[in-house]
Design brief:
Blueprint: E1 2-4, H1 5-11, E2 20-26, E3 31-37, E4 40-43, H2 51-56, E5 66-70, E6 76-79, E7 87-92, H3 96-107, H4 112-126, H5 129-132, H6 138-149, H7 155-161, E8 166-171, E9 182-185, E10 192-193, E11 196-202, E12 208-216, E13 218-219, H8 220-225, H9 230-234, E14 240-248, H10 255-259, E15 262-268, E16 274-280, H11 288-296, E17 305-308, E18 333-338, E19 342-350, H12 361-370
Parallel strand pairs: 7-17, 9-19
Antiparallel strand pairs: 1-6, 2-3, 2-6, 2-14, 3-4, 4-5, 7-8, 10-13, 11-12, 11-17, 12-14, 15-16, 15-18, 18-19
Amino acid sequence: MLHQIDALIASLPADWREGRFLGRIDRGEGPCPVLVERGELIDMSRVAPTVATLIDAGAIDPAQGESLGDLAEQDALTLLSPIDLQCVKAAGVTFAVSALERVIEEQARGDYAAAAAVRERLEAALGGSIRSVVPGSPEAASLKQALIEGGMWSQYLEVAIGPDAEIFTKSPVLSTVGDGAEIGVRSDSTWNNPEPEVVLVADARAHAVGATLGNDVNLRDFEGRSALLLGKAKDNNASCSLGPLIRLFDDGFTMDDVRSSQVSLRIEGTDGYVLNGASSMSEISRDPQELLAQAVSEHHYPDGFVLFLGTLFAPTQDRDEPGRGFTHKTGDVVTISNPRLGTLTNTVTTSKAAPAWSFGIGDLMRNLSTRGLLSA
């Protein structure tokens, strides 16, 4: 997506000249990993041809790259999603509110018209108990037993308060879109929403090296009909956005900043509809490091991975008719922001109408080979 430089800088955090950021741009020949350090834009493609290999190299030395000058003095940049070869993983049902909404989807069988009644019954039964219980604890086991006896247990509550987190693959390698791009929902979905999240970026040894913002676009009607439809609910053309850049961890930005972060969301429709929301990481039920460990499990990701940490945002505000709640319309502008990570903005279309994902791993390797970037 071509960004005028003023718009790009506006999408970065206010302290962007103090932080270290990693991303990708297209200079006309193909994707280039770039570093932004102390305001300087540095092409790192001759050091490592992909973001994944650059991260895996360890310490990132800007002196080895090609300086393109001060970021603010560029004319315009074609900004891409900041990741490339990393697996795209996601943790689900990591907040109490989202856990309840998944149970509501399930018991309503994906029918938005039945959701309000189910929500009222569940909230009356659970009260604040699910918000205070520690997943995997004896108290969680007791709550589980009580809900089973009351006929209200759900597979979503299992991953919300049980010992094992829900970890799934969100989208294929190289399929994510970046800031300014269109995001897609299936054209046959009638109940869907954005999911604003903080996304950890990990190297091949599963060490978190930084974070960015993400939109884990979700189809509530598909997943609500059956959890076995999770793949169709989550993995669609243009259904995963990341950006604008990865903020690398350093003395000024650490995992504690992730733990205390608040993600803001604004949806503006062409029909005049406006929705504002927020997701506070302080309310997450499992620590980000625990989710990272559960994502790794006994597996190995040689090119590293990114991990969506989940969201407590589950919009219930009616958009068209009472009791229907929220669902996207084509043309919605979705803005996700955080003071330390910047702003990620995308416009909603259908997955059918969004630009087709056609640049895969083979295409990337051929492109890098043609540019002489694989010789090392």
